[in-house]
Amino acid sequence: MESQEQTTQIKKNNTWWQQVEVPRLNVGSVLSAKVIKKNPRSLYLDLNQYGTGLIWGAEFTRCAKLIEQLNSGDVVKVKVLSLENEFGMIELTIQDIVQENQYQWIKELMNNNQSIVGKVIGANRGGLLIKINDLQGFLPTSQMSEDHFPKVEGGDKEKILENLEQLIEQDIEVKIINFNSTQGKIIVSEKKIEEDKMNDIINKYKVGDIVEGTFNKSINGGAIISLKDHPLIKAFLPIEEISWTPIENLEDIIKPDQIYKFKLISINKNRELILSLRELQEDPVIEKLRQYKPGQTIKGKVYKFIPVGALIQIEDNVFGFVHSSEFGGIEEMQSKITLNQELEFIVSEVNPNEKRINLSLKK
User: pTM for the full model?
Assistant: First the structure.
């Protein structure tokens, strides 16, 4: 009986590490620490159950202003940088609560795609230094708006810098596109604001809409059109969509400074609007097709054999179709009529929508 009571008592008297669950310590963990000793280049801190921590080297220099204010026995928030450094100690940095709150704010701005107004505080050849509250961001020239981009002929670096320096002290609206909290690097963009605005506008368009615009410039394969209601949006007009008939010079058809109506025929994967001018014009082929009626006798020339019959050229850009079944098959057809042979046909059907005339050989 006595032995049993002793056993029970031993089970109750657990050691301290069995009674207390110690949370796991990780790189990035934030905890309270008490200052043990401050040296000119290092700071030792008591981490309670985790032992002793150390701030030294580059981190000591970075935190120097905060460390100056500390005395032995002070409690401060610290963040773990390394669980074991070369001295076998936990390496720390002082957790700057104000900075952490600002970093969190920056993250929320970026995640919510919100813009912020910052002041230009400096410039170099690569871009502008932007002050956002007490933090510093960088606006590369590649992310600047057209209004602020340094337009320097020949790309003279000194002149580019002079242009950028003229923006110092100006307020600029930007969006955060990259943030590295470990290095404290913030990259901002003006272009992102413009792109998002244009995307919002583009989302309102749908294929089939009629839009107005002016000729902006010629490029390979077509023309750039500035939309009348949204000049920042540049749409593309392929050269084959300018006219139903082949053209050599698009500027013979579409003139600068004149407003045209276009049909929106697609929005491609790059969110570009593709326009057509000819879709709003009558196709001359359809107009010609309307001249032909079922039962009418016409002359045509055998233009091409295809697997199910033959194409018959009636006039320029107007073709009819004869099915091989009228001859008993494609081989029989090719034995009875030849390419370029002119024959008489009877119109059996006219389909303007498909730009097609079905024919039968006149007996």
Answer: 0.53
